[in-house]
## 1
Amino acid sequence: MPETIPAPDGETRVFLILGDPIAQVKAPRGISLAFAERGVNGVLLPAQVTAGALDTLVAGLRYLRNLDGLVVTVPHKFAMLRHCATLTERARLLGSVNLLRRNPDRGWHGDMSDGAGMLGAIEAAGGVVRGARALLVGAGGAGSAIGLALVDAGVAALAIHDEDASRRDRLVALLQGRGAEVAAGSADPTGCALVVNATPAGMRPGDPLPVDPALLEEGAFVADVITMPEVTPLLAAARARGCGTATGVGMFQAQQVVIADFLLGL
Amino acid sequence: MPETIPAPDGETRVFLILGDPIAQVKAPRGISLAFAERGVNGVLLPAQVTAGALDTLVAGLRYLRNLDGLVVTVPHKFAMLRHCATLTERARLLGSVNLLRRNPDRGWHGDMSDGAGMLGAIEAAGGVVRGARALLVGAGGAGSAIGLALVDAGVAALAIHDEDASRRDRLVALLQGRGAEVAAGSADPTGCALVVNATPAGMRPGDPLPVDPALLEEGAFVADVITMPEVTPLLAAARARGCGTATGVGMFQAQQVVIADFLLGL
């Protein structure tokens, strides 16, 4: 992948990622390079804005006529929902958005693609989702999006574990009736061919493992949302047992394609 | 000059050029390349906004925390004055701004550098401003900025011609008392060592010449604001008579340095 992009010009289409803090975001580089590779005259730049000023900025950005799309990260994924004129079903269900593009009347169309990135990473690494019995640990924002993506991609069963029982039960209720057998579960991966960690456990040395690797089924596939370290203790233990794995970095890479496609209306 | 810039990242500083239309502007390319050459992690992108929506956009952009500067072009140079908390003296005198950068309290500091670009182009092409008797044809926005720059750079005398006598007289009054002998003049360049065209005459085939080249003094220096064609009929005639010349493209190139310096607070 090249490290440079063509210099912008007067016809360049503008894309921004809204977040606070912003210095850590990878999308400006990844998406701008993806646009350059596709021959698209567009650049995605970081846009740091506090929660208190978000509405004023977004009200103004409505009138930036060559602004075609927004990526949204922490802490604005829920607040940006109210700026959307239309939503994908998954964004509506999850109550949050991470991607916005213009409708023909210039209002914003919102989507939540955090789950699609994990799905892409699992499939790119050889994991099988359709028909699998899966365990999801973590029912927060990322976990909810991943749970919905797994159910809609055809898992046979999804057990959901979260230390916050109300959060867990809310996600279970949200995902029931969509074709999979969804239930509150424990952190025990016994019987699961697919295990996904969507908690922060594994970011810091000494974190407890979100799942006991000794209980992993032979041939189970294990995925983790954490990007740093790329190979978490859970993934290292899973690999040592011969399991296939998908990393948070893989999820991020798969999501770059999803994001670029959405922003370009593909 | 390289044709590419480093891909942006989460720490990239944002700069925008506000205008309508916007596709024709050269600053995104010129300034983004200049930033890259200087090792500055910043990108300047086009921002198309109508006059009616300008205030709402700028009110929002105040809260884009990594937005460090704005370039302003037609039709917003006068309207953007009211968004500036502080102004350079030349911007205050001219009542318009083409450059804004943040003050420490994040309010905008405005400048008008259109005249400095022409000054830089004349000097780069070997023209002498200090002590010269000069003729300025055209007292509009660009002409006013150039007139002020010529007076403040030490011309001995400045004759100003404009078909609109009230516009001409307003500029004469503005520039008097700053050290040069400033007066309303005709289009006759007799006695002038420096002649500047700041009218659109010369953009279209068949335009009348703004100044009669047959009347140019031997050794006079002639400058033109027009960028297309780069060598206007006036400049071609002046060159045929052995005069030194500065083009609108040269003015634009000189201004790129002025703009980059200002936006970076240099």
## 2
Amino acid sequence: MATRETIEAVLAGAVERARACGEGEPATYIPELANAPLDALSAAITLRDGSIVRAGDDEHRFTFQSSAKLVLLAGLLEERGEDEVFRIVGREPSGGGFASLARLETHGPIPANPLINPGAIALASILEGHLEDRLAWIERWAERLYGDALPIQQRVLASERRTGDRNRSIAHFLKASGVIDGDVDEVLEVYFALCSIEGSVVEASRLAAILATGGLAPRSGERVLSQRTASTVVSIMATCGMYDESGAYLCATGLPAKSGVSGVIVAVATGRGGIAVASPRLNKKGGSVRGHLVLREISRELGWHFALPD
Amino acid sequence: MATRETIEAVLAGAVERARACGEGEPATYIPELANAPLDALSAAITLRDGSIVRAGDDEHRFTFQSSAKLVLLAGLLEERGEDEVFRIVGREPSGGGFASLARLETHGPIPANPLINPGAIALASILEGHLEDRLAWIERWAERLYGDALPIQQRVLASERRTGDRNRSIAHFLKASGVIDGDVDEVLEVYFALCSIEGSVVEASRLAAILATGGLAPRSGERVLSQRTASTVVSIMATCGMYDESGAYLCATGLPAKSGVSGVIVAVATGRGGIAVASPRLNKKGGSVRGHLVLREISRELGWHFALPD
Amino acid sequence: MATRETIEAVLAGAVERARACGEGEPATYIPELANAPLDALSAAITLRDGSIVRAGDDEHRFTFQSSAKLVLLAGLLEERGEDEVFRIVGREPSGGGFASLARLETHGPIPANPLINPGAIALASILEGHLEDRLAWIERWAERLYGDALPIQQRVLASERRTGDRNRSIAHFLKASGVIDGDVDEVLEVYFALCSIEGSVVEASRLAAILATGGLAPRSGERVLSQRTASTVVSIMATCGMYDESGAYLCATGLPAKSGVSGVIVAVATGRGGIAVASPRLNKKGGSVRGHLVLREISRELGWHFALPD
Amino acid sequence: MATRETIEAVLAGAVERARACGEGEPATYIPELANAPLDALSAAITLRDGSIVRAGDDEHRFTFQSSAKLVLLAGLLEERGEDEVFRIVGREPSGGGFASLARLETHGPIPANPLINPGAIALASILEGHLEDRLAWIERWAERLYGDALPIQQRVLASERRTGDRNRSIAHFLKASGVIDGDVDEVLEVYFALCSIEGSVVEASRLAAILATGGLAPRSGERVLSQRTASTVVSIMATCGMYDESGAYLCATGLPAKSGVSGVIVAVATGRGGIAVASPRLNKKGGSVRGHLVLREISRELGWHFALPD
């Protein structure tokens, strides 16, 4: 097991080298995301003992976007159990894009997995109560996993709402197929809010650290998620977390992860800690260019690939 | 880390309980496979130190079928390197069946990954020399990974040849798309021979044990595969090894694996050892019913899920 | 050319024989349609000279549903011309169902043709002005082609709105793809109103008669559509009008047609006249069971197959 | 009805104008086709009375390629009847390319229609007897419909065989799906021979003329095909004959047709006559660029669109 000093040096070096790469463009389909500081780069590792290693731009805050789907999945697995959750979403890689309707039509009706948009929208539909109650559920689980009460970024939320036709199409499709019930607009409101949670790599890495310990809070060691929930979430990250580059990414890093279009990647090093990297420059498949570079270097230098023994 | 005694007890118990399950049918699309003893069940674990734990029907021998695709992949990664291998196959879950042509047409031309039929056929096409040389290459790598010179089962081979129209269709498609060159019948002959390697769970578990140690031979500790090759193969097993139940299987067991239609499953417990289970009764998706049961119990009882810390 | 007496006898006989068939079920996905009188059957032929031959239940009124897509297509071809219309929809059979999104995703962005739901929704989006203006456009063209100011059936309209999630999904998808602009709900309101035009087979057959004469009003002989518009609409009916049984239907009858889920079929016998048949019992592909029977018998007895010379 | 003089003038003018267009490239996937004289252009119309109108390069001979699928379809409909034929192929537009396997996998097992490669290969498989007998069947029906004993072009046949991997893939797929039986290589040999029939536009237009009269031989008036066979073949040409530009082509010309990659188009003007045009320059969808131009002009100038009354 690497010492804290080694981890600090490796992370600092990886961030510095990644900064040299100027490839990739920020997402534009949610217009507000295009306003992110293009060259911001930040990374944090929350270690098993709760200590935090940081590098890069401390002040960089961003919306968690699809990486927040982990909150929804973990919370529902805890409260409702696998049977209920996997009645409305699958656990399989979709083999396609993150917002595909074709697959729903040909392989559906239930979405392939909870980490693509149709899957997260389906899960958002089973939260109960008034819209306020459902938003409160999101806030509560976000606080539990990120360790802090994080705000919903209102400009991004407005941008998601204004340009969310693809997600509206998915939600109405799921309703037409009988997968979801109730008011589609309210379901989407929950989904858009989930994507608009704002924070930094520190909070994001805390969620990953909980997953890396089989469900325990860093520092306190208090159980936040059951082992079963934690291992299920990490398994789905391994197979489905990076959309259609999940396989190549896992080969290269061995760190199960979930990306978001804001450029964040949340990655799990089981038994070691949780990692988050954020940088808005995206590759063609929607993954953070520099995030990939940082995670590859961490994995290689620290020997954190899940398929390599200690 | 569990003691050898614990592992023995867990494996024996798991095999005994799995034997009670009479669900599933043997594969029929390769007629000779239907002649397998329906209720045979055998399992072996090759531990890191080279010791072997066994349970079930010792005499049970079977063809390795698709699980032998691992030999082709590992051997080519060693000899040719990633760049050459991943120029003709991808590393992504296909999101569909193991012999699908539709995906080649819509997402191709290269096959999604090396563990579905199109991927293995594509890889078989880059072996060099006369047909004898290519068969010799297969034998050599099989011996290196399985630890023994294993025979090609001639009746199964004849059955594969006689009924291999789906694979012929795939191979001609790949040739028409420019992915493979040369004589299609010779490529298929290599592929059919690979699937017809015959052995027991002991040899199959040895290959898994090599992958579980990052590439070292059990007992001798000699390096057989580079860390890079081993971790890449295991990563692809994690995302693509169990066809369209890869995701659900990984959640349940956390043991990256590759199945074969003879009912074998070869699974990797990184840092612990390699597991093989064989039983001809298959579920609807082509996975061994009892194999799944045994692996779930091993994972749960020994805490060998990759996403749970020691 | 058959005499009026022959045509009357053939139509009466065909309707009588079709009435004996009790197969098929009314559409249920628009709940209000399920309230249609299950065994109503009516048919009318408007001949070239404007005379009308009728048979069956005179009082049967129904909503025109997808058959009214012809109004939208013909009106836009007249006013905007082919270039503008075929910039946002194709002219090709889709090879799939009438409400498929998969095809939009894989072959899009523009819908395959104007007679499937995505195509008609796309066309509805280019009507101009306030919602009232667009509804007025529909009413104006419906009156011009059906020969009468027909009402919008309000219960059916309400039912379409309440259960229109599949169409909402399509419309948001088209907006997300940049095919349509503007307020999706208003576009759907126009589309739902179009489907809810209510009339009898007499008015429906008049539209078909205009198409059968290359665009002339029955009786008056006044030009309503250009030859170009009429022949284009009939050609698209021939290849795409009966969803995924268009080919088998055309072989059997040789009468290019458009069906609606209320059980209406509007069919064109070029040079002879326009035919409409209505009966709510539908086959598995959404076509009227008795409508098919009546049209097959008319075609055979009168020699009206387009591919047979006089 | 236009006079012979008018038809001659229209055809001569259309051919002259089409000659000015230098767009399009010859097919290259069958290498021998690339050797065709690039600018050859010939056209013929066989009228109802058996007289023939010609224009362009008299000496131009070419292989009939996919246009000869009409021979197979018509002959089998006559000898086996609809029930048997449409048990192994459909009658629906495929909505995709002419050699697609994806559709077989997703909508199969039977091919969508007899005018795409999978459909014609399936039909070729039901010819009976030794290979010689099946080739003799093709020759016999070709002579009956083309009016002459036409040769098989041996260089093209050799080229088809050498490069026919896509068709081999299709044939093995159909065998694997249980659609075809027997020796795949022999089925393909029949199919390749069918595509390699060589002749001129005169013979090709004779087949079309038989279809245009509901099945009667030009001049003699002798019945060659039943009305039922003729109208079924023409209906399938209308919906499926021009691959994925069938719809746009039918709108533009109203002349049901079948194309071949040698650049021939065989088109039917019901009640008037049969047309053939040949020119090797192809558009992106595999249709003859100049063939389209000639047929559009004939249709427009002579008023031969099927959807316009006399």
## 3
Amino acid sequence: MMKILTFLFFVIAIFSCKPQSEKGSSSSVEKTDPLPTWNEGQVKQSIISFVEAVTVETSPDFIKSADRIAVFDNDGTLWAEQPYYFQLQFAIDRVKALAPEHPEWKENKLIQAVLADDINTVLSFGEKGLMELIMTTHAGMTTDEFSQIVKDWIITAKHPKTGKLYKEMVYQPMLEVLDYLRANGFKTWIVSGGGVDFLRPWTEEVYGIPADQVIGSSIKAAYEMRDGKPVLIKLPEINFIDDKEGKPVGIYQYIGKKPVAAFGNSDGDLQMLQYTASNHLKSLCVYIHHTDSVREWAYDRESHIGKLDKGLDEAIAKGWTVVDMKTDWKKIYF
Amino acid sequence: MMKILTFLFFVIAIFSCKPQSEKGSSSSVEKTDPLPTWNEGQVKQSIISFVEAVTVETSPDFIKSADRIAVFDNDGTLWAEQPYYFQLQFAIDRVKALAPEHPEWKENKLIQAVLADDINTVLSFGEKGLMELIMTTHAGMTTDEFSQIVKDWIITAKHPKTGKLYKEMVYQPMLEVLDYLRANGFKTWIVSGGGVDFLRPWTEEVYGIPADQVIGSSIKAAYEMRDGKPVLIKLPEINFIDDKEGKPVGIYQYIGKKPVAAFGNSDGDLQMLQYTASNHLKSLCVYIHHTDSVREWAYDRESHIGKLDKGLDEAIAKGWTVVDMKTDWKKIYF
């Protein structure tokens, strides 16, 4: 009888306690894991601790919602970037589609390499070559026309290695970070070296980030009337390069406020992380370190794409969060 | 007895009906006037009719909230701009504050005119002179330092004619439009020919428009380390002129979407209104016509500041809404 009573006592205790612990607001974070595809450990905890420290009103590090600005690099941080930037593949596809209309391209060695699928020669032209391909294929049309071309490409083009649509090669753990931050009153921004016009047509659907929260590199545009209707024409002239020192400048020009959280994966993001770390408010700086040669790619100091060298040293020296993709992420893609 | 019953019937009818008519969602607009300082008439009705047409889900003109983008010029549309742009007064005040440190300015005729309070000579230098004063006084310091100078100025500087703080010379009827649109799911943006860095420090408090929803003219900035801390230095080099054809370009570069509502007051806003009117969604284009020489200023086709000539013709031809400040607004300032 005593055993039955003791058993009943435990049953009652369990059932009466559980709802209470679920109700308490302080335990709401324990209730559901906000980052389920992140393995437990110091890295995951550093993100959660930061969010809790700045969102609890009684915390000494509390940050009001209007100042909860979180910025994310795109290539290599939110989606993959190997064997070369996906926007380069888009430009290559555009060159191939447009080549029949451009006999004059026969003299152009870079474009001939593109048409011959000689990607090593294409890459040997470096950043300048990439810019030339972007100018050639992104300019000379209206912004609406370009946007439609991107929309058509993003729902059909597939990655040569994984066979996935490029838009499926977004990192599931990072989608969780975006959701988690927004659920806690953060405004999430993309700050990409890639082209803003290449990103905006799909970032809302894929990342939940609307067009007006995307900062990127851009070419100039001009307003003109065509058949009595106003259009914006994309010009073959650089407007802004949103990389390295350009990232804090872009953040300043577009957001007008210093972020409190920044996520990147390469030396091109270092200045953005430094700028964020200099905030007088508590800040979180995170580097995604590509360490998983099986599920993704492993690269850092020697890579031509997404080189992470100085940034890694500074992250270690400053105690920033460095995500080890291989050990910290349960899975890469959805 | 019959009379008492009839009376009671009416009392019951009144008391039972009133709460019902207040509950009905269709009558919620009648209940409180969203634009109380606007006189009744065609102009006020055009704004209300537009908002109702695009926000009622069953309406053929319904626009989803993400596409409810409303853009506002600032000078002459949200606040006054006479006898000259308030930012010019700010630049003049800066020249006077900085002159003792700059003996080399003695050779500069424009600056000497500023120091002699010879405003006609200052204005005779035109747009180019205004830009020169802005470069001279807005560059060469960190963005944080500049922001603090603007914050100090905006809470102290007073208009020579009205004696009001400049930030009190915002149009009460337009503040109501901003609130009304936001209450109906619109995102409100400033698209100003004025300097974005001059606007951002105070637009949130004065207009309820946060820094990242302000588009304006800008000078370039550079990222550098000072004493181990990252700063952005304002450079004496134009980055972007957000006027005339520049306004649709700025909207495209920052928002990435075409607006459905645009408010302006000068020919400098015409392209922004044309661009908005070309939206395939229902749109609202509004010109504020300065017609009140007693309570404000009366000017249009011949004015050097806020010239409204081609824009007025096009507004009439296209049937856009033209606000007659004298007859449409019950009051100008709060």
## 4
Amino acid sequence: MVSEEHPRYASLVLRNKLVDGYERGIASAHGLIAHGRGEAFDYLLGEQTSESARNATKVACAHLLTANHPVLSVNGNTATLVPGEIAELHAITGIPVEINLFHPSAQRIERIADHLHAYGVVNVLTGFDFIKLAHIASDRANVDKNGTFKADVVFVPLEDGDRAQALAKLGKTVLTVDLNPLSRTAVASTVTIVDEVTRAFKNLVSFAQHFKSESHEYELDLLKARFDNIENLKASYALMQKRLRSLAR
Amino acid sequence: MVSEEHPRYASLVLRNKLVDGYERGIASAHGLIAHGRGEAFDYLLGEQTSESARNATKVACAHLLTANHPVLSVNGNTATLVPGEIAELHAITGIPVEINLFHPSAQRIERIADHLHAYGVVNVLTGFDFIKLAHIASDRANVDKNGTFKADVVFVPLEDGDRAQALAKLGKTVLTVDLNPLSRTAVASTVTIVDEVTRAFKNLVSFAQHFKSESHEYELDLLKARFDNIENLKASYALMQKRLRSLAR
């Protein structure tokens, strides 16, 4: 039990949720370490959604809603932390959800598929019917034939650098959530949401609900056209620097 | 297997070592997350020992060598990552090694004790014969009667904020290793080594060998007297800021 008076309560609750996901065979040991890395960046970013992150989330939503073949590719951490939000996004947009693990095992993929089904995700792609992508050496090159392979827009939260770069090289529109604005993933993607994944998904669901309610085609096209990912990432660097200065006082 | 060509090879080797320690029941799931947090700070600090970290390591060594009752308090991560260096420091200085876990279990304590014995640590304190310290609410208040309880100098690498603050309040000299120069542990300690724990321990062993070789009493006293922890931490803040600026270019 975490005391609510602990200075970093929200972060500790999330951490326990992830450990729980690990113990249930959904998240991996490496996923726990990756989560810790994100925690440190979130701490430096002030543990709240910045204006630039909110803007990126809106633009990512515009891409998802206007794509021909979008796909949401999830790993163990994402499935553990935001299963409800994945299901909501899936219900609103009809986006298929592909399971793609950095440390794949058939057993873990099946557990995650069951977990997502239980939250109401209908269309889960397991990657068992896969094609090997160019530009990647590892097992991570394998993507689902009906998901990432044919997608024009791939939403890959908490992605690793090699894969994000390979997907971008293949000409796909890459959307990601990454708390490290300096990572290869952040820099290689079309739209990088520098935010903690549960906050990002909650906002994404809100935007999707808003934009789905009536015709916003022109607005969505404008959002996409006006967005410059590298410029937007600079706002996160600046925020980290500002916060370091104030913490160091 | 991690490719040696990966841009962050050394960090990935360490990560695998920790996952291995977790699978052997030495490190904890929460320890994996904490390690990830450290990784992010190390990345921002340039993944090498800074001048200020080297200086703090030397001063920490001075405290260890001149203490009446020093103790080295280790957790699962420290036992996993630097068992050989713990044994060397123990052999050179005779410092007892106490096991103190944030998520304690008798089974894990016994595994860590066996692990340390196998590396040659003779005097392992398990904390089974404990006394409850003031100023802490949790299980972490329990410390070994013959270790931390009677120690004047406690070396607590990778410590949590509550305990570091409580030990300092009790008037003990607190030495720590913490990659987050802004943490409560870093700020509450007498000497904070802002460095990755394997690099810090290797340097500490070297310094201990050097200072043990002949009489350095006056030099050790000077090192202690001249050190200002908060001033030294500021060098790490400055380094992180400088590195963020260059990474963001």
